[in-house]
Amino acid sequence: ESSLHLPAPKDVMVDSYNFRSSLRWSPVKVDRGLVLYTVHFKTGAFNQWDEMNCTRIAQTECHFPWSLKERCWTVVLRVRAELGQVASDWAETDPFVAERNTTIGPPKLNSVTARSDSLLISVTPPFASEAGDFLQYHVSYWENATTTTKKETQTSNTLFKIGDLKEMTLYCFRIQVELMTHSHLQLLGLQSVPECHTTTIS
Questions:
Q1: What is the CATH number of domain 10-97?
Q2: Which of 25, 102, 148, 191 can pair with 176 through a Cys bridge, CB separation 3.0 to 4.6 Å?
Q3: For residues 181 and 185, what is the distance between their CA atoms, to the nearest angstrom?
């Protein structure tokens, strides 16, 4: 009798980076046969389960379809294991809201131009912004000799300057993005790895 029982998938979680989201779970182990998985979703607006583009798949990951790209929607997902005619119980996620729960990566650094008293920095946002978004770049920088004293500046421009620097000196900086959405949520992104440049001589 127990051979007919299939355990539900465990470690079910939404993995979301820069608003690209997918559902992941741990594989269900059985003695023989290939376990397949089916994923459903429902939104806060309609309390009704729908199929995602992941029905009877062998992978333990399912990417969100384009139809779920709205960042402010509340989405609940569920996945079950299937082996032949036998199906496990559903394993359900907590409600997921992309603009609250995604991880924002650091901006892409395009170029750094060193001058005698400043560094001119050009970045690209980590994701395509939507109407109503406001992006703020938090920049912390320090003279490499004195890593203890960091200075902070913030800007909403993708081209900006760190000024009042000493000439012929090595400076390092890190940047992180803060997103403010039209629904007034604030989301602080991951910091970039430190980047170091030496100012020129005047």
A1: 2.60.40.10
A2: 191
A3: 5
